[in-house]
UniProtKB/TrEMBL annotation:
The keyword Amino-acid biosynthesis does not apply. Belongs to the TRAFAC class myosin-kinesin ATPase superfamily. Kinesin family. Residues 14-245 form the Kinesin motor domain. One of its GO terms (biological process) is microtubule-based movement. Keywords: Motor protein. It comes from the Eukaryota. GO terms for molecular function: ATP binding; microtubule binding; microtubule motor activity. This is Kinesin motor domain-containing protein. InterPro entries: Kinesin-like_fam (IPR027640), Kinesin_motor_dom (IPR001752), Kinesin_motor_dom_sf (IPR036961), P-loop_NTPase (IPR027417).
Amino acid sequence: MPSIRVPATKRTTTLTVAVKCRPSTEGESNRGIIRILNEKEVLVLDPDLSKDYLERLRNNTKERRYSYDYAFGPNFNNVDVYKKSIQSTIAGVIQGLNATVFAYGATGRHVIHFKHLILPHSPSEMTSMFLRCCGKTYTMVGNKGDPGLMVLSLNTIFDLINKDNNSDKFDVTCSYLEVYNEVIYDLLEKSSSHLELRENLGQGIVVAGLRCIKVKLPDKILELLNLGNSRRKTDTTEANETSSR
Protein backbone atom coordinates (compact mmCIF):
# COMPACT_ATOMS: atom_id res chain seq x y z
CA MET A 1 0.00 0.00 0.00
CA PRO A 2 1.39 3.48 -0.83
CA SER A 3 2.38 6.00 1.78
CA ILE A 4 -0.28 8.18 3.40
CA ARG A 5 2.27 10.91 3.98
CA VAL A 6 1.88 14.06 1.92
CA PRO A 7 4.85 14.87 -0.36
CA ALA A 8 7.31 17.37 1.12
CA THR A 9 6.24 20.07 -1.34
CA LYS A 10 2.68 19.89 0.01
CA ARG A 11 3.38 19.79 3.73
CA THR A 12 1.52 22.92 4.72
CA THR A 13 -0.63 22.74 7.83
CA THR A 14 -3.64 24.86 8.70
CA LEU A 15 -4.97 24.43 12.23
CA THR A 16 -8.48 25.62 13.05
CA VAL A 17 -9.82 25.51 16.62
CA ALA A 18 -13.54 25.65 17.41
CA VAL A 19 -15.34 25.33 20.75
CA LYS A 20 -18.97 24.38 21.38
CA CYS A 21 -20.69 24.90 24.71
CA ARG A 22 -22.83 21.87 25.50
CA PRO A 23 -26.38 22.17 26.92
CA SER A 24 -26.75 21.78 30.68
CA THR A 25 -27.38 18.24 31.88
CA GLU A 26 -30.31 17.35 34.12
CA GLY A 27 -29.62 18.55 37.65
CA GLU A 28 -27.23 21.32 36.63
CA SER A 29 -28.16 24.88 37.45
CA ASN A 30 -27.71 27.50 34.78
CA ARG A 31 -25.38 29.83 36.64
CA GLY A 32 -23.96 31.50 33.58
CA ILE A 33 -20.42 30.34 34.29
CA ILE A 34 -19.65 30.00 30.58
CA ARG A 35 -20.78 32.67 28.14
CA ILE A 36 -20.37 32.85 24.38
CA LEU A 37 -19.57 36.53 23.81
CA ASN A 38 -19.44 36.43 20.01
CA GLU A 39 -18.47 34.11 17.15
CA LYS A 40 -14.88 33.84 18.41
CA GLU A 41 -14.77 34.62 22.15
CA VAL A 42 -15.79 32.68 25.27
CA LEU A 43 -15.94 34.07 28.82
CA VAL A 44 -15.45 31.68 31.76
CA LEU A 45 -16.29 32.90 35.28
CA ASP A 46 -15.01 31.44 38.54
CA PRO A 47 -17.62 28.81 39.58
CA ASP A 48 -17.80 29.93 43.22
CA LEU A 49 -17.86 33.66 42.69
CA SER A 50 -20.30 33.44 39.80
CA LYS A 51 -23.06 32.48 42.27
CA ASP A 52 -22.89 35.86 44.00
CA TYR A 53 -24.89 38.50 42.14
CA LEU A 54 -23.49 41.42 44.16
CA GLU A 55 -19.94 40.33 43.46
CA ARG A 56 -20.70 40.33 39.75
CA LEU A 57 -22.07 43.87 39.98
CA ARG A 58 -18.92 45.00 41.76
CA ASN A 59 -16.83 43.35 39.05
CA ASN A 60 -15.02 41.27 41.67
CA THR A 61 -15.40 37.95 39.89
CA LYS A 62 -12.46 36.10 38.43
CA GLU A 63 -12.90 35.67 34.71
CA ARG A 64 -10.96 34.36 31.76
CA ARG A 65 -11.48 35.20 28.11
CA TYR A 66 -10.57 32.70 25.42
CA SER A 67 -10.41 33.34 21.68
CA TYR A 68 -10.96 30.67 19.01
CA ASP A 69 -11.47 30.52 15.27
CA TYR A 70 -15.12 29.65 15.98
CA ALA A 71 -17.24 29.70 19.15
CA PHE A 72 -20.63 27.95 19.15
CA GLY A 73 -23.33 28.20 21.80
CA PRO A 74 -25.51 25.25 22.92
CA ASN A 75 -28.21 26.15 20.39
CA PHE A 76 -25.96 25.42 17.41
CA ASN A 77 -26.44 21.98 15.89
CA ASN A 78 -23.89 19.68 14.27
CA VAL A 79 -24.70 20.93 10.76
CA ASP A 80 -23.88 24.50 11.85
CA VAL A 81 -20.54 23.39 13.30
CA TYR A 82 -19.74 21.32 10.21
CA LYS A 83 -20.53 23.97 7.61
CA LYS A 84 -18.64 26.75 9.37
CA SER A 85 -15.54 24.97 10.61
CA ILE A 86 -15.02 21.63 8.82
CA GLN A 87 -16.67 21.36 5.40
CA SER A 88 -13.93 23.13 3.44
CA THR A 89 -11.29 20.91 5.05
CA ILE A 90 -13.15 17.73 4.08
CA ALA A 91 -13.40 18.91 0.47
CA GLY A 92 -9.60 19.07 0.33
CA VAL A 93 -9.32 15.35 1.12
CA ILE A 94 -10.63 14.45 -2.35
CA GLN A 95 -7.82 16.53 -3.86
CA GLY A 96 -5.13 14.47 -2.11
CA LEU A 97 -4.74 16.40 1.15
CA ASN A 98 -4.74 14.87 4.63
CA ALA A 99 -7.30 16.10 7.14
CA THR A 100 -7.79 15.39 10.84
CA VAL A 101 -10.91 16.39 12.75
CA PHE A 102 -10.38 16.02 16.49
CA ALA A 103 -13.27 16.50 18.92
CA TYR A 104 -12.29 16.52 22.58
CA GLY A 105 -14.48 16.60 25.68
CA ALA A 106 -14.40 15.83 29.37
CA THR A 107 -15.25 12.12 29.33
CA GLY A 108 -13.21 10.22 26.74
CA ARG A 109 -12.59 9.72 23.05
CA HIS A 110 -12.92 7.29 20.18
CA VAL A 111 -11.14 7.11 16.83
CA ILE A 112 -12.31 6.35 13.31
CA HIS A 113 -10.15 6.29 10.18
CA PHE A 114 -11.31 6.69 6.58
CA LYS A 115 -8.64 5.95 3.94
CA HIS A 116 -9.22 7.09 0.37
CA LEU A 117 -7.03 6.14 -2.60
CA ILE A 118 -7.18 7.97 -5.92
CA LEU A 119 -5.37 7.58 -9.22
CA PRO A 120 -4.73 11.22 -10.16
CA HIS A 121 -2.37 10.98 -13.14
CA SER A 122 -1.02 7.55 -14.03
CA PRO A 123 -1.00 3.97 -12.67
CA SER A 124 2.50 4.56 -11.30
CA GLU A 125 1.52 7.72 -9.44
CA MET A 126 -0.90 6.59 -6.77
CA THR A 127 -1.73 9.14 -4.09
CA SER A 128 -3.13 8.02 -0.76
CA MET A 129 -5.19 10.30 1.42
CA PHE A 130 -7.17 9.86 4.58
CA LEU A 131 -9.63 11.59 6.84
CA ARG A 132 -9.26 10.84 10.53
CA CYS A 133 -11.91 11.76 13.06
CA CYS A 134 -11.95 11.21 16.78
CA GLY A 135 -13.96 12.58 19.63
CA LYS A 136 -17.28 12.99 21.35
CA THR A 137 -20.04 10.58 20.43
CA TYR A 138 -22.91 12.99 19.78
CA THR A 139 -20.81 15.55 17.92
CA MET A 140 -19.13 12.91 15.77
CA VAL A 141 -22.03 10.47 15.22
CA GLY A 142 -25.19 12.44 16.09
CA ASN A 143 -28.66 11.07 15.36
CA LYS A 144 -31.23 11.07 12.55
CA GLY A 145 -32.42 14.60 13.33
CA ASP A 146 -28.94 16.04 13.81
CA PRO A 147 -26.30 13.95 11.97
CA GLY A 148 -22.80 14.12 13.40
CA LEU A 149 -19.56 15.27 11.83
CA MET A 150 -18.63 11.76 10.68
CA VAL A 151 -21.92 11.35 8.83
CA LEU A 152 -21.75 14.81 7.28
CA SER A 153 -18.13 14.24 6.24
CA LEU A 154 -19.02 10.94 4.59
CA ASN A 155 -21.86 12.52 2.63
CA THR A 156 -19.53 15.28 1.41
CA ILE A 157 -16.81 12.82 0.38
CA PHE A 158 -19.11 10.52 -1.57
CA ASP A 159 -20.93 13.46 -3.19
CA LEU A 160 -17.60 14.83 -4.43
CA ILE A 161 -16.50 11.41 -5.66
CA ASN A 162 -19.75 10.96 -7.60
CA LYS A 163 -19.31 14.37 -9.23
CA ASP A 164 -15.71 13.64 -10.25
CA ASN A 165 -15.12 12.53 -13.85
CA ASN A 166 -12.71 9.86 -12.57
CA SER A 167 -15.00 8.54 -9.84
CA ASP A 168 -14.21 4.94 -10.82
CA LYS A 169 -10.58 5.55 -9.78
CA PHE A 170 -11.46 6.09 -6.10
CA ASP A 171 -11.07 3.40 -3.44
CA VAL A 172 -12.67 4.01 -0.02
CA THR A 173 -11.88 1.81 2.96
CA CYS A 174 -12.99 2.04 6.59
CA SER A 175 -11.36 1.08 9.89
CA TYR A 176 -12.71 1.78 13.38
CA LEU A 177 -10.71 1.52 16.60
CA GLU A 178 -10.93 2.44 20.25
CA VAL A 179 -8.26 3.26 22.82
CA TYR A 180 -9.41 2.05 26.26
CA ASN A 181 -7.08 2.11 29.28
CA GLU A 182 -4.19 2.73 26.87
CA VAL A 183 -5.00 -0.45 24.93
CA ILE A 184 -6.07 -0.41 21.26
CA TYR A 185 -9.10 -2.47 20.18
CA ASP A 186 -10.52 -3.08 16.70
CA LEU A 187 -14.24 -2.23 16.89
CA LEU A 188 -14.95 -4.02 13.62
CA GLU A 189 -13.82 -7.34 15.11
CA LYS A 190 -16.28 -9.20 17.34
CA SER A 191 -13.64 -10.20 19.89
CA SER A 192 -10.67 -7.96 19.26
CA SER A 193 -7.33 -8.77 20.79
CA HIS A 194 -4.97 -6.02 21.93
CA LEU A 195 -3.47 -4.25 18.92
CA GLU A 196 -0.08 -2.56 18.81
CA LEU A 197 1.44 0.40 17.04
CA ARG A 198 4.16 -0.46 14.54
CA GLU A 199 6.37 1.58 12.25
CA ASN A 200 6.08 0.93 8.52
CA LEU A 201 8.62 2.29 6.04
CA GLY A 202 5.95 3.21 3.53
CA GLN A 203 3.13 4.32 5.81
CA GLY A 204 4.82 5.57 8.96
CA ILE A 205 3.11 4.62 12.25
CA VAL A 206 0.30 2.08 11.76
CA VAL A 207 -1.93 -0.10 13.95
CA ALA A 208 -0.81 -3.65 13.23
CA GLY A 209 -3.68 -6.04 12.49
CA LEU A 210 -6.37 -3.37 12.24
CA ARG A 211 -9.19 -4.53 9.97
CA CYS A 212 -9.70 -2.49 6.79
CA ILE A 213 -13.00 -2.91 4.91
CA LYS A 214 -13.59 -1.66 1.37
CA VAL A 215 -16.86 0.26 0.96
CA LYS A 216 -18.69 1.87 -1.95
CA LEU A 217 -21.58 3.66 -0.23
CA PRO A 218 -21.82 5.95 2.82
CA ASP A 219 -24.62 3.77 4.21
CA LYS A 220 -22.17 0.87 4.47
CA ILE A 221 -19.79 2.97 6.56
CA LEU A 222 -22.67 4.08 8.78
CA GLU A 223 -23.54 0.41 9.22
CA LEU A 224 -19.96 -0.25 10.29
CA LEU A 225 -20.08 2.75 12.62
CA ASN A 226 -23.20 1.42 14.32
CA LEU A 227 -21.58 -1.99 14.64
CA GLY A 228 -18.45 -0.47 16.15
CA ASN A 229 -20.42 1.80 18.49
CA SER A 230 -22.22 -1.24 19.92
CA ARG A 231 -18.82 -2.65 20.95
CA ARG A 232 -17.40 0.47 22.55
CA LYS A 233 -16.75 0.69 26.27
CA THR A 234 -19.21 2.92 28.13
CA ASP A 235 -19.53 4.01 31.73
CA THR A 236 -21.33 6.59 33.85
CA THR A 237 -19.61 9.91 34.57
CA GLU A 238 -20.66 13.14 36.23
CA ALA A 239 -21.11 14.70 32.79
CA ASN A 240 -22.77 11.83 30.94
CA GLU A 241 -24.76 8.79 32.03
CA THR A 242 -23.48 6.68 29.11
CA SER A 243 -20.09 8.15 28.33
CA SER A 244 -17.82 6.42 25.84
CA ARG A 245 -14.52 5.41 27.37
